[in-house]
Amino acid sequence: MIIMSALLQCGAQPGSARKCASIPGMNPDSEDPALYPPLEPYASGMVDVGDGHRVYFEQCGAPDGVPVVFLHGGPGSGCAARHRRFFDPARYRVVLFDQRGCGRSTPRGELRHNTSAHLVADIERLREHLGIERWLVFGGSWGSSLGLAYCAAHKAACSGAILRGVFLTGRRDAAWFFDDMRHLLPDAWQRLADHAPRRRRRDLLAWYARRIGGADREAALAAVREWMRWEEALTQPGRTVTTLPSPSGDEAQRLIDKYRLQAHYLLRECFLGERRLLDCAARMHGLPTAILHGRLDWVCRPEAAWRVHHTLHGSRLRLVDGAGHSPFDPPMARALIEATDHFAARGDFAGWGDSVHERGTA
Predict the structure, then answer these.
(1) Annotated catalytic, 88?
(2) Is 325 a catalytic residue?
(3) pTM to 2 decimals?
(4) Which of 117, 156, 160, 323 is the most buried (most CB within 10 A)?
């Protein structure tokens, strides 16, 4: 049995790991006091999912704990060490994986045979590979979209869902990100627009997608950096974005691969679209579901969370005060951990937290 040194120092009781984080010296990430302490995977590997793709996965926490699968955002991103820390390691068996074409999965940046349907199938193949009967689905941003699609397609394999920063993938979501937010951040948006020729500014997503997907590596990287700068401005409302680092070598190529894959999905409404995802939410009736969305989220529309909540009977919604899009904003991190702790103890979200809207079953 895998026992982490931090848990040994705390007695390894359920819920004790996060309490350790408040002890001086126990939590090296002072900006994340709500999170559980850092931990390492007890197992990792690659799964051949077909079409030339191999998907990286890792497991951490308690091998006999409540199974949960973490769906990262993007599309095109990957899992990070901090993502392991939303779950009590004494009570959860945490499965994280990099979606096909992302992170440590291979071939990185591959667009062929890479759609939402492929990703849903990959999640189910991973579940079967690990011998897990049912698991909690935890997804944020694009991961919430993928979570809706997976839960609707494989409801019997799911014990519940936690969806954060809901993204419905439709044209309105892309317009919100690339155009509508100019009204709140006119200076930052102007910089994003100025990078494109004037005649192309009516459809910035299409222009940036072509630029990043082109053969000119330096031009692609320059476009990626402007996209990142805009993303940072939306993620940190009220703060001025400082100069971004200038990556080189494999790090530069990693970023190009990430945003090329993201553009591949966004141009096609992530192969889903708003109407289809709301239908997925309707088909999740009876599945315990917690929805969390930051009131200051400028990346994904808070309205999207509200619509999913009012479509999914029995779901519970918390609009988190003081939180933006990042799951690591302290109010959001605390709310997410309250949700995971509650599910570990109860197996559902009945009675979870306060300031929660509940969609009745009538």
Answers:
(1) no
(2) yes
(3) 0.90
(4) 323
